[in-house]
Design goal:
heterotrimer, A alpha/beta (258), B mainly alpha (219), C mainly alpha (221), B: 219 residues, mainly alpha, 81% helix, elongated, C: 221 residues, 0% strand
């Protein structure tokens, strides 16, 4: 269970996601051990913790890429269904950004961003392309619209991936270690886009190792260890005055000095 | 129409001999084509320009010809080239060996090339000769990639031995078709021929699958 | 050794018709085996599970039996079993299709399975259905990745047409045998045949290489 937490800024905003005692096993391995967490509208929630502590798994359970073994996840008041059809409808309202970008290599950047609206939302091709062009401009890649992923740098690919997720006009954006596979020089451009998104009021759940980003942009931080949340609170508490031993160990291990 | 399947049992000795010849051809061809393939690959990779060109021409030629034609061509040309007539078996073996050597050379070359150049450079920097570096550093690593392909080539070769039947070599296909001609038991003999190849070839194919799984390379 | 080219020029029409039959048989069996192989692979991956072992058995069996055996059986034994006699060209087409479709099925299956799982996850995350993902995301990439293997299969197909000579299909190999037998000049005739086959096969492999190099990035995720 999490340690006593400080008052929550956005607690009055409507609940977008509610995780209740989520349990997930991979064979004999217990990856999520009863995780409970709330995400309010407009909040940026960062999940931090050692590798293998279950953060990414929780994210993948959120949009049904993994099925739960126990507990429940509510999205905008409705429990996540188990059937493909129902999951698909919910996935369309969540945006996910992957560590490995996963752009579609056979489509141009523009076509990548337009793919979701075209195929899932049945938006007309011209309208989808227009929306895509606007989003590419928003992430600073207007001139790369006609390029293929193979011609883009890692940071550029990830920004296109963010635009692709945004094109679906989601109610929440899920980021799974978005900068872990990037060269140090390009991390900044991606974090910049994410910060701008946060400033606009997008609800975001971010699994990250970028502590400076979490300290500055997050509204709420949850610290994971061995499939449980050991501490959660505002970034000020977590990073400057952590309550639990585990959190202190983790941060000092990362060389975090505030 | 009456079918007489007992003809298969009657001629079991001939069929067994044919099968043995098939195996003999396969083993003998590989015994020649493995070392020759390595030599040709080495010539292509490390030889001086004219040698490289000849080796490449050889490989490209035999990879782009139907084997059955090479068998025929060998049957008619080889006696004239070397002045003495070879038995059909030897001719068939020569054609198969020429063909498989080319494929093996390509397999070895691609396998060796797939090992990063830095490995060779590091070995040479230690003072090894090219040959030593090849033997002790590159080939062992390339081996993992080469083995599955060689296994696959083996199975193809086993099937390709059936083609030397066209110059009357008494391997399995020729033997079966001869029996068919003598006994007029067309369906029985042709089906038996297919069945025997199946019984021999299916386990080999499965073995190749296992080898490919076991030695799969993940980068 | 003297080379008497007149035997080639004297019979150029006869040999030329052989080349046409070779090309026709190769193209037709190439198309049919890819079509059948594609269907088999899709059924094996996405169809009813009781069909899977049957298809796997068929594919593995064709890896075990030589093309020559399949062709001979199709031409000589099938009429006895099925009552229909196919003329040599069509028997060869059937036999080649039977044999090559197994390889085509394997190529398709391997191509689809080689597409990164992450691509499917990303498409699912957008809310796409499985059918949409297969059609719009996985197959386009898989097709690019399959190209080298299919190029190789085309090369094999062309070479296998020469084996059809054994069941009297009048393709180049057979015509060459006839001319060589009549003229007693096998060296010239078979050398000519080798030249023709090489000139057909070499550009095919080179061409496939070239095309693949240009579009490989479309399949690399």
């Amino acid at each position: 269970m999490s340690a006593p937490s400080s008052p929550r800024e956005m607690a009055s905003a409507p609940l977008v996601l509610r995780y209740r005692d989520v349990i997930k096993r991979f064979g004999a391995l217990q990856v999520l051990n009863g995780v409970s967490l709330d995400v309010h509208a407009g909040e940026v929630v960062c999940l931090i913790g050692p590798s293998g502590s279950g953060k990414s798994t929780l994210l993948r359970c959120t949009n049904g890429l993994e099925t739960l073994d126990g507990g429940s996840i509510d999205f905008e008041g409705t429990t996540l269904p188990r059937d493909e059809r129902g999951l698909r409808a919910m996935r369309a309202r969540m945006g996910m950004v992957f560590q490995s970008f996963e752009l579609f290599p056979h489509l141009t950047a523009l076509a990548n961003v337009a793919e979701g609206p075209r195929t899932v939302l049945r938006v007309a091709p011209e309208a989808a392309d227009q929306r895509a062009a606007a989003l590419l401009a928003k992430v600073g890649l207007a001139e790369k619209a006609g390029g293929y992923p193979s011609a883009l740098s890692g940071g550029q690919q990830q920004r296109v991936a963010i635009a692709r997720a945004l094109a679906m006009e989601p109610d929440v954006m899920l980021f799974d270690e978005p900068t872990s596979a990037l060269d140090p020089e390009t991390i900044g451009e991606v974090l910049g886009v994410m910060k701008a998104l946060a400033d606009e009021g997008m609800t975001m759940v971010v699994v990250t190792h970028e502590m400076t980003f979490a300290r500055r942009v997050a509204d709420w931080v949850a610290v994971f260890d061995a499939g449980r949340i050991v501490e959660e609170g505002p970034p000020g508490q977590i990073f400057d005055a952590p309550v639990t031993e585990r959190t202190r160990d983790f941060l000092s291990h990362l060389g975090w000095s505030g | 129409m009456k079918f007489d399947w007992s003809v298969i049992w009657q001629y079991r000795d001939a069929l067994a001999a044919g099968t043995a010849t098939t195996f003999l051809l396969t083993i003998a061809t590989m015994a020649i084509a493995l070392p020759c393939g390595i030599v040709v690959a080495a010539l292509r990779l490390y030889g001086i320009a004219p040698v490289r060109a000849v080796a490449t021409a050889y490989v490209e030629l035999f990879r782009n010809l139907p084997l059955i034609l090479v068998v025929f061509w060998a049957f008619y040309v080889v006696p004239i080239l070397i002045g003495v007539g070879l038995s059909p078996l030897a001719t068939g073996l020569a054609a198969l060996a020429l063909n498989v050597t080319a494929y093996n050379a390509e397999t070895f070359r691609a396998g060796i090339n797939s090992i990063r150049r830095g490995q060779m450079e590091a070995a040479v920097a230690l003072g090894m000769s090219r040959a030593q570096a090849l033997r002790r550093v590159v080939l062992p690593q390339a081996g993992r990639r080469i083995l599955p392909v060689l296994a696959s080539t083996w199975v193809s070769l086993f099937k390709d031995t059936s083609l030397v039947s066209v110059i009357a070599v008494s391997e399995l296909a020729y033997t079966a078709m001869q029996i068919r001609a003598q006994t007029f038991r067309v369906l029985e003999m042709l089906t038996a021929m297919a069945m025997i190849y199946w019984v021999l070839g299916y386990p080999q194919a499965k073995l190749v699958d296992w080898i490919q799984r076991r030695y799969a390379v993940t980068e | 050794m003297e080379f008497d080219l007149s035997v080639i020029t004297d019979h150029w029409r006869f040999l030329g018709s052989g080349i046409l039959v070779t090309l026709a048989l190769a193209c037709l069996s190439g198309l049919t085996s890819v079509a059948v192989g594609l269907v088999l692979a899709l059924v094996r991956m996405y169809g009813p599970s009781w069909l899977r072992p049957l298809i796997a058995f068929y594919v593995d069996s064709m890896r075990a039996i030589p093309v020559l055996v399949v062709l001979v059986w199709t031409f000589f034994a099938l009429p006895i079993v099925a009552g229909i006699t196919l003329p040599p060209f069509w028997a060869a087409l059937l036999g080649l299709t039977l044999h090559l479709a197994a390889y085509a099925a394997e190529i398709v299956r391997a191509g689809v399975e080689s597409v990164r799982r992450g691509q499917t996850r990303a498409a699912l995350a957008l809310g796409m259905s499985r059918a949409q993902i297969l059609r719009r995301i996985v197959m386009p990439q898989a097709i690019v990745r399959m190209l080298p293997a299919f190029g190789s299969l085309l090369s094999v197909t062309i070479k296998d047409t020469a084996i059809a000579s054994v069941i009297a299909v009048p393709e180049l190999m057979r015509q060459s045998e006839t001319v060589a037998g009549q003229s007693f000049e096998p060296i010239e005739v078979y050398t000519f045949a080798m030249l023709v086959y090489f000139l057909i096969l070499f550009p095919v492999t080179r061409g496939v290489d070239r095309v693949y190099r240009r579009i490989a990035h479309l399949g690399r995720s």
